[in-house]
Structure formats: structure tokens, C-alpha cells
Write the C-alpha cells for this entry.
Amino acid sequence: MELIEITTYFKNLQQEICHQLEIEDKSGKFQFDSWKREAGGGGVTAVLSKGRILEKAGVAFSHIHGPMPNRIATRLHQPEGAFFHATGTSLVIHPQHPFVPVIHMNLRYFEVETGTAWFGGGIDLTPCYIDPAQAQWFHQQLKSACDTGGAELYPLFKKACDEYFFLPHRNETRGVGGIFFDFLKPGDLFSSYTDIFTWIQNIGNSFNPIYTALIQQNQDKLFTPKEKEFQCLRRGRYVEFNLLYDKGTAFGLDTGGRTESILMSLPPEVHWQYQFIPEPDSPEALTLSRLQPMNWLEFKA
Amino acid sequence: MELIEITTYFKNLQQEICHQLEIEDKSGKFQFDSWKREAGGGGVTAVLSKGRILEKAGVAFSHIHGPMPNRIATRLHQPEGAFFHATGTSLVIHPQHPFVPVIHMNLRYFEVETGTAWFGGGIDLTPCYIDPAQAQWFHQQLKSACDTGGAELYPLFKKACDEYFFLPHRNETRGVGGIFFDFLKPGDLFSSYTDIFTWIQNIGNSFNPIYTALIQQNQDKLFTPKEKEFQCLRRGRYVEFNLLYDKGTAFGLDTGGRTESILMSLPPEVHWQYQFIPEPDSPEALTLSRLQPMNWLEFKA
């Protein structure tokens, strides 16, 4: 497995996802910005704004390299200045329609000249209103993709996702979870880097069919201004998570990453209302009650 | 100087500020919520929403006490479990009018049974569009209030404010600064706690005349949808600062404070736009160019 195969895959994945999203949106077009990193490497950030379905969609590819900055070396327990490569695809999609869920995916590969290398990433879903049948279907799709690498992967990575995407100050999960993994190397779970890379591609390739289905199932539903307002409040929680807790955001900003590419994850319009309390038994109250780690595969209505 | 004098002052200050803001707003009314802290003490959070001038104004009083939680003790270099009192008034005002500036004030007092005690706080201004004459006038008022405790205070606390309210990932100050101070005890700057408390009251009492004037000077100006949009984007920077960098926010959430009271500082409506770049020489570009530490007292147009 060569680095160029990985960067090529991540770059192609960005293209394929942008292409598919434009087909579904039928109106918006991605704007592609190339950027270079002074110390080595760069990336392409693609953003679609004010589409028919997608209010703001960001799909980023990057491949940076060079001597490892001190702060990264410390966090990763690597020698300062060791030559490294980091490459990946990440995306966050904020639909304008409150019934089309927000989705986030990140797949990444890190390699250091000391000989160590690993994959990381995940996919998770943040519906504004939780539809349990759709949450279940989403987890079934992730389980199928995970199982191509072994049946033990989905339960491990599902649990890690619930733990990571949690807002302690709200006592809420960010959404209905998904999968999350990091530092994947040959070992107990995979026998070789080639196996991991094959599996990573299965995860990446699951994105388009999953999200296309979620768009198509929800895009024609009618919605009210009240539901749009609830979407803007739920987006506030998304911002709180990304700025208060997300390690990728803090890491990126802290190490001098490209601010506009890192913060492309923030929603286009967000509301904060003091002490929003939904009416008892309303759809809003029901959704908030379900923002807890749930075994969606076993969920029965 | 007794603790009860301090808590009484902070509580009265909250009342006086809410009263004055209602007079200026002419439409909105504050909603007062009392809350109790399980381990001791509590507070009153006052929020005015959707007023004529004030889109969201939060003015909080609190007085909490009890054995010091471990995380607070570690941060403050105090023995774990030592009995403490913390009291203060804090406010953030988000006007609906893009030419009325956002203002923030915090005044606080901390006392530990080990015998140590200190005051902290500050006032700072975040105009959406910077009017240099108003920024200068604001700093003149703060200097006058500061000078009641000695001419050396304003320069020290002005510098500390510029350093604190800075967004490194944007290379921008949050606004036009103000004053910021912490751990004020008798020593080089003040000879007694009574002197510090007298000075703190001069700072707190400066709030109503300063902000009333800023409302009255700006509230009748005409504004365009473009200017309102710029306000929503500038509010995004405010959110970024508060969630990424503000120590009070992190400290409050981290130590189990009341989430709704802590996050009352977040604006009611916020926009994020990928790569917003203002037209050259526009008022928006001019404002962004002035988001740097500036000697406003000496500013010449």
C-alpha cells in the first residue's frame, strides 16, 4: 500500500461525493478552493452554499506534510520535527430542510518517518428531528459497511462514537451517533495496513448511497416555520459541540490550520434562545429525550 | 468591608442595570429566574428577549458558596474542599440594531476561608461596525472611571483586555477592547480591600451612563439588510471567542455551572458564511482592519 494510493482515494472520494450531492441538490454548485500550506502540502476545500436542499455543504480534501510541529508531536507522542504526512477527506452537510439530517464524515491517514502510521475517522448523523426508523436504517448501513472488516468492529466503533459526540453541559448526544475510530493499525482488529485501507474504502464508499437515500426520503416532506426554528436551535448545539469539545477543530486551529476550511463545519444560520423548553410530548420534546446513547439496531417503536 | 455589602452591591447593580435597559428599550421586559446551587448558594438570571433595541440581553447575579470543588481548587491553587464564596454580576447585551454595539461587563469577588480574597472583572465593547469616535469616547469614560483608583490602572487593564479578547485563528480582537483585571488584592495598586471595593463600584456605576449614551447615539440610524447580515457574521466571531477561548465559559461549564445562565452570552441569531471577504474599502473592510489592539485614546481620524 503506497501513500499515493491513499491520497488518490481520498481525493477521488471528495469528487464523487461533491458530484452526487450536486445531482441530488439539482441547483447548488460546489466552489473548489485550492490552498497550500507554507510548511508543505495543501488541500482543496469544496463548499456549496444556498442550494435547493443543501444550505451549506463542505467537503474537504487535504494532504499536508513536513517536519512535525512541536504541539502535534507532543499530542501524538512522536519526536519533534519528525517528517510526517497527514491526508484525509472530511465533510459536514447542513441541509436547509429540517427533516433532512446533518451528516458528518471524516477519514484520515497519518504516517510518520519513524515508521508508525494509522487510520482514523467516522460517520455520524445529527437529525434535527429524530426519526427512529431512519436512525435504525442508518446504523444498519454502517454495520454492513463495518462488517466487511469483521463483526467485532461495529459495536466497538458505535460505542466510541456515542462517547465522543456527547455534550456534557446539555447531557445530550449530538445526534443519533454512528461510528468513530482512531489509531487503527495492524493488530487485534486488522492483520495488515492493506486490510485497513480496504475497509476504510468500504466505509467511504458507503457515504453516497446512505446520504442519497436520506435526502430522498425526507426532501419532499412539508415543514413549518416552527420546525425551521427548532432546526436553528439544534444547530446551536452543533456549534457548541464543535467549538467546545471537538478535538479536530481545536487541533486544527491550535496548529495553525486553514481557519475557513476548519470552520466550514459551522451551520449557515444558528439561533440561541434562553431556556428553550419544548411543550411536553411534542415532537421537539421527543427528539430531545432521544439524544442519549441508544441501541438503534434493536430499537422498537 | 463585609461580604454582605459586596453581594448587596452586585445584586442592586443587576436591578439598576435591568431597570435602565428597560427604560431605554421602551418595549422589552426582563424575565427573572432564580436558581439554587445544590452545594450552596444560587443566583438570579435576568434575560430580555426580542425588545425594540435589545434582541437579547442577559444580566446575571450569583452568590455561590460551599466547599471548593477539586477542579476549581486546582485552578486557583487553593486547598481542596476549603470553604469559599464567589459572587458577581455579569452581562452581555446583543442589540438588534447593527449600529448599537454589543457590550459585556463582569464584576466578581472571590473569598476563601484560608484568608485570601480578590476582585476581578472588566467591561469591553464589540461594535459590529467600529465608529472610531465612539470607541475613543468609550475608552475615555473607562479611563475616567479607572482613574478614581489611580492613573496607573487604565493602561494596565486596557492592555490586559486587548490580550484577553483576541481570536488568534482570525488574527482579530473581539471588538474595541476596554478594561480587564483579575486577582485584585491590596498591594502595589490598592492599599486595602475597601479601596478596591470602592473602585469596583465606580466601574460598575459607570455602566448605565456609558451604555445609555451608546444606545441613544445609534438607535435612530437607518440600516440596510446588508448591515444586518454583517452583524450576524460578526456575532459568529463572538460565539467563536466565547466557546473556544473564554475562560469563564469553560470554567463554568466544566465545573457544573448552570448552562443556560452561562450561555445566555450567545447571540440570538448568528450566521457563518464560508470565506466572507468584504469589498475593498467598504465599511465592513474598514471595521475588520481595525480589529487589532489600538490606542483609541490617541486615535485621530
Remarks:
- Chain B touches chain A at residues 33, 47, 49, 56, 58, 168-170, 232, 236, 239-240, 243-244, 250, 253, 259-260, 262-264, 266-275 (CB under 8 Å).
- Chain B has a mean pLDDT of 96.
